[in-house]
Amino acid sequence: MERILVVEDEQHLADGLRFNLEAEGYDVDVVESGEAALAHLDEPAEVNLVLLDVMLPGMDGFAVATELRRKENYVPVLMLTARGRPDDVVRGFEAGADDYLPKPFDLVVLLARVRGLLRRRSWAQTPAVGDQLSLGDRVIDFQRMELVTEGERVPLTLMETNFLKYLAQRDGQTVSRRAILEDVWGVREDTDTRAIDNFVVRLRRYIEPDATKPRHLVTVRGVGYRFHRDPK
Hints:
This protein is 39% helix and 22% strand. It contains 8 helices and 12 strands. The termini are far apart.
């Protein structure tokens, strides 16, 4: 049985999520704060998905997601937020969330997002052939959502995987920051594109031999970025 951790401080919402998720056959734990969520995720029992509210007492959802990724915990995170502004959505992805859902949400949509993230998690744990990108001594495995380098496997978030695949499919093309926001993150309103730059800095640590001198993912000043699978 797959286990879901719900991080929600509003009791009626937490109870409703627990009831509906358990009705779908999931095992559900509920905590009311970011600090409690991190403590719970440090326990040996496996959690397959986190439903993470943004507005929490003390440590907010952005900080929780950031800390999880810092600790190299790549459990899928579905962020729930009443702050549906594009900048908040981008901030959630920048923190390491895999998906977001603005409140109020339709239960059918929530369950579809949950199934989708759990399915991707299952795929990532299953050996797969193909759907890979070789960058020198590094390999991006899009199916398993991980970077393989020198025998080490580094998990990637769903958003990191989608971003890298989007760039790889446009090898040699200049892609604007605005296009990335719209096509990858689904944000179509006026949004601070500097979040893209911060995200790219993180990706360069994965794919570049020297992240301070990028060769695969280069900046096109005033426009965006260009990806080179085989830089000259």
